[in-house]
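Here is one chain, start to finish.
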Amino acid sequence: MMMYPYLKLGPRDGVLLISVFIMLGLTLVFKWSIWEFLFSVVAVIISFLAGNMKSNDKNVLAFLKK
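Its structure:
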């Protein structure tokens, strides 16, 4: 049951949000600079987007067929 149905957040978005909060916690505990915080958040977002990309299963072993 979603509290805000117009946002349409799923479990993957929750994991991304939790990882950003972990980065914020690490920033506060270890006194990172704002740049280190931003770089870590950008790295988490890039890895999140890369994990959502679909692979083309047809061409994975195409080099073996030749």
